[in-house]
Design brief:
single chain, 201 residues, mainly alpha, two-stranded antiparallel ribbon, 2 strands, 69% helix
């Protein structure tokens, strides 16, 4: 029954991703590499949605399960990974692709050790989320916005090369993703970003 509820809550996002996957397999005139990277992004978004649902389930525990900080760290790291894959999907970077992964590689140990080091976030024994004050409290959002800024810079350098339709689509994606994150931060809501990623994609 719990699985049925998860599917019902994520139905629109699942339908969007399934439709996109079907469209990619329907002979769309797109480079093979772009199709492969897009499918990887779809799978990453699905993984993020599953992990989010599991993390929500661990919130109901009266005592802390070590699975919860691991799930939170993985979700935090998946968001920028999805952004990097989207950058590669639209083929905006030709050289130095490895450099895009450096902030993620640096952030991964911070996220996964944070339960014990209290660098960014942690859960107390009663299973309540806590985080440091100041800038580090918003580190996951800062990392996400770093990749949005990279996307905007790369997009602006190739703006003249893109078709008018492509320009509008990319601008729409950037604006909607940024607004979605800002709204959730300002409203202090716990939201699964997989739906946002799927809609933008």
């Amino acid at each position: 029954m719990e699985a049925l509820k998860i599917i019902a809550v994520n139905y629109i996002m699942l339908a969007e991703l399934a439709g996109l996957w079907a469209m990619l397999d329907a002979g769309v005139h797109t480079k093979r590499r772009t199709v492969i990277v897009t499918k990887i992004v779809i799978l990453l978004i699905l993984l993020e949605a599953i992990l989010w649902s599991l993390e929500q389930w661990t919130q109901t525990f009266t005592r802390l399960s070590l699975a919860r900080p691991f799930l939170t760290a993985t979700i935090y790291i998946l968001h920028p990974i999805i952004m990097v894959c989207i950058l590669q999907m639209v083929d905006m970077i030709k050289k130095g692709r490895f450099l895009l992964w450096v902030p993620i590689i640096i952030s991964a140990p911070l996220y996964y050790s944070s339960q014990w080091t209290h660098v960014i976030f942690w859960y107390n024994e009663d299973n309540h989320y806590d985080s440091v004050g100041g800038v580090m409290k918003y580190y996951p959002y800062i990392l996400f916005f770093f990749y949005v800024i990279v996307f905007i810079i790369l997009f602006s350098t190739r703006f003249s090369e893109l078709h008018h339709r492509d320009r509008k689509g990319v601008i729409y994606g950037i604006v909607m993703a940024t607004l979605g994150v800002i709204l959730n931060v300002v409203a202090k809501l716990e939201v699964d970003y997989s739906t946002l990623f799927a809609s933008v994609l």
